[in-house]
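seq as requested:
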Amino acid sequence: MSFDNTLAVMKRAVVLLSGGVDSTTTLAVARERGFETYALTFRYGQRHAVEVEAARRVALALGAARHEVLAIDLRAFGGSALTADIDVPKDRSAAQIGKGIPVTYVPARNTRSFCPALAWAEVLGAQDIFIGVNALDYSGYPDCRPEYIGAFERMANLATKAGVEGGQKLKIHTPLIHLTKAEIVAEGVALGVDFALTLSCYDPTPDGAACGRCDACVLRRRGFEHAGLADPTRYRAG
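struct tokens:
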């Protein structure tokens, strides 16, 4: 009897990681599905740049094989409350959050994120990209919709050597897209995520305390509340 001692090679996946609840849970999902994960974070001139440090903590805790932080300063263009001198909306109701596209939308952010992720996936020989977009409890961003994800996936398979010559097509995974924020929180907890490592706030203090009032904080707090769990985020006093 002979034995094959060759170790099975794990499939690789690039995971877009901002350091918030959704992207962190997505990284945990990719790991649970058996992928060797390569986390990709962007420093794009966002006012909440402390999220990059949250992403570093998460990538380390969840065992990413590699974590890259790419810099592209979108403050040169502005056009968003996250990259320009525009007030971040505060204290909005659920109805207000769910209506229209808010000023925290960063023009073409997900498209800008996908392109380097696609390039890195080609270099790694990876056929899978994970992103934590959500079409239920979110702020109405157009680049979080299933239609957009499907369109980019089709483009990716037309525009890359791997897509044209490869035996298998590139797949964009959106495991959270039809989940509520409470369901996302519960999924993360079930996968062993320590949400104390994460940051969701659009307007935190320099030392990383969340404001508790922006759309991202409101959605996060509501998600933990509906999941029946304590939110470990450190919120600004007062």
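The longest helix spans residues 109-124.
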